[in-house]
Amino acid sequence: AMLRLRLLTWDVKDTLLRLRQPVGQSYAAEARAHGLQVQPEALSRSFREVYGAQSRRFPNYGQGQGLSSRQWWLDVVKQSFRLSGVQDEAALTKLAEKLYRDYCSSDNWEMLPGAAETLSRCRQLGFRMGIVSNFDSRLEAILSQCNLRHHFEFVLTSEAAGFAKPDGRIFEQALRLGGARPEQAAHIGDDYSRDYRAARAAGMHSFLLRAAGQGEGPEVPPEHVLPTLSHLLARIEK
Is residue 172 predicted with pLDDT exceeding 70? Predict the structure, then answer.
């Protein structure tokens, strides 16, 4: 059946781009450069705990709570190191600011297989394209650094929208930005509830990027599953 799509919206993290190495390893390497020995595993555990607590206390990067996303992240980084045993406050401030900047750079991100080719082909086919991502304002810079920004008419982050996926209002904003009705749009992402199910609840089509052997998630019709991004074209070019 022809889907008659006009607009494709994309998640970024673990859909188009992924971290080159786990957060704990990057943080530990940066600490070493500042003369501090911290175990990557300890940092990974601390980071998960701190990130979770910060997200619950100050949702959406502190938006509407008097916190900038930059300050939100600096606090997360410092607290992750504190929990891992680093006490030197001057070092913590330096580390946090350096890491906040580093995550804007392509040194920390790599493209998923098939991403560049698939995006180029979708543009050649005349689809309008946009980003819908639970991310902070650094996302524009990251996409530019990784040479992906030019594929998209808009980049909608949860920080800018004021809502995070799976809240349907972020998809409504994306549809307005893309000038499409829900049934003319499809969202592509790797998270079942935030991407696949949330876009469908907003009346859009959606496709779930789910690599083979990724364990059994909830049941999704096979024609909605993408084992790799390169499978998308066969699903939408009908």
Answer: yes
Same domain, 177 and 192: yes
The identity of residue 82, as a single letter, is R
> Treating both helix axes as pointing N-terminal to C-terminal, what angle do 69-83 and 40-57 enclose, rounded to 10 degrees?
140
Exposed / middle / buried, residue 77 (Cβ in 10 Å: 0-12, 13-18, 19+): buried
Tell which of 51, 82, 107 closes a domain: 107
Look up the pTM and report it: 0.94
3-state secondary structure 152-202: CCEEEEHHHHCCCCCCHHHHHHHHHHHCCCHHHEEEEECCHHHHHHHHHHC
Please check whether residue 230 is in contact with residue 118, taking contact to mean a CB–CB distance below 8 angstroms.
yes
Q: Are residues 53 and 159 in the same domain?
A: no
The parent domain of residue 64 ranges over 20-107
Q: What is the CATH classification number for the domain harbouring 222? A: 3.40.50.1000
DSSP state letters, 205-228: EEEEE--TTS---S---GGGEESS
β-strand partners of 130: 9, 154
pLDDT tens profile 34-92: 999 999 999 999 999 999 999 999 999 999 899 999 999 999 999 999 999 999 999 99
Same domain? 129 vs 77: no
Helix H or strand E segment including 128: strand 128-133
